[in-house]
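Crash report, auto-generated. Payload:
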Amino acid sequence: MKGARPISLLKTVGVLLAKDLLIEWRTRARLNALIFFALATLLLFSFAVGPDTKVLARNAGGYLWLALLFSSVLALGESFRVEQENLTLDGLRLAPADARAIFLSKALGNALLLMLLGAILIPVMVALYGVTVAMGAGSFAATVTLGCMAISAPGTVYSAIASNARARDVLLPLLLFPLIIPALLAAAKATSLVLQGDPMNQLGSWYGLLIGFNLIYWGLGFLLFPRVIED
Amino acid sequence: MSTALYMSTLLAQVGSGRIQGGWEYVWAAYIIAWASLSLYALSLWLRRHGQATHDSKE
Amino acid sequence: MSDLLKTVLQVLSTVAALTSVGLGVWLGVKWAPPRSRVNGRPVLVGMTAAGLGLLALGNWMGLVWTPSEREMGDVYRIIYVHVPAMWMAMLALVVNFACCVGYLLHSSWKTDALAEATAEVGLLFGTYGLVLGAIWGKPTWGTYWDWDPRLTAMAIMLVTYVAYMALRRFVEDPEKRAVWSSVVGIISFINLPIVWFSVKWWRSLHQEQSTPKTVDPDMTLALRVNAWASLILLTLFLLHRYRIALATREAEVAMPEALPTDVPGSRDNRASEVA
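Recovered output after restart:
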């Protein structure tokens, strides 16, 4: 387990990721509920702020990321509850699967789920808030990818911890939200710039922040996750 | 003449930009600091050995 | 106050604080473990007296002795309690980070107990330091909360460590609690510089906060005395909290079955301590 070569690690990640995605596909009802939760959140923002389209359009980036963040808490909480119901995490560890592979597959799975959610939310947001889009799909995709990965890496570590603690539904957001603030800031700013244009060329520095955040937390998760799920 | 004098004093005030008074904020700050320190000391005293209870409970 | 007296004060406060830290470490090793036979009382009384004496002296210097500042008037006197509190919070959290890394490298109840103590005491200093910062904002910036990068980053940091303490409360198994809280402690600490830079960039369109630049040497001296006094108090708090944590840990490890049934009433006072 310790001396696992990178190739075999990646292979394990692939197998585990395929397993998680299969489970996700077989329990589509939960995925649908998650999508509707996110859509409802977007809709509720427009009710909470009022029908002023200018305000909504100006803050669209922030609302999008808040909706994604709230949904991510539900998705992350589920991702380890599935394993716990049948004690499959113990089975995986006995298999023996490298704990780091479990982390990578879980975090990648969660990031993919969030990206899917983002891809569904963005057109709805554009229609709902009357946003004009200044930049192309490429920068949108980059922003969503970076932002979702930034949420999923620390989120995976923390949901593994919280799923075994008492009051886990409170604990996960309590742990995750303060941590995620830099990523939320950067992702929301970057989205606003993508929507409204970037005359001052600030987009690059927000991407830089997101990339740095991702590198740090994917690295930390990779290093620390084995300690989290050990016995 | 009087306007010139008035202007000069006004400018002097702007130049120094000094905040007048504000002692109530200073006292509030010091009292909060003392209160937090002594309340925490009190809580440590209440939890002193022999009475130390478990950290995790619901 | 003559120059000689100032030098004496400078040296004395430094020596008193550093000696207290050294004695604190010694007491932590010898006196804090449960059933220790070392009589710590004389040293503790001495340290408490030195800490309270220096604090009284420092606050008197801050409130009365130092001149008022050229731009801030008398309001600036808040920094004599605000700045040391922030320094102590940072110091406690650095120790907390070291303990978290240390625990993952080499498991020991002592490291875990010290991590618990530093997080709680750091939260105490950070919380009142933050409140003092907000009070400072009212007369200087006209509002209690200006989204100033420093205060904002500090507030985020406090929420992070409240979550850390909540995690410690929500996990019964002492070993799992120690490992998980170490992981969370490491991640939380590494997050601090990221939060700092992101909040700074986020606020970059607004004016930089002005700190008093006209620093009188007397002001530096008063600030130092206050900081040394806070360091002694920090050492004392950590020491006592560490001792409580060690006793708690021993009780938990010795009789794990006693965990679920516990004194039900004491949870409320614990919750209020974090706040």
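Post-recovery validation: The mean pLDDT of chain C is 84.
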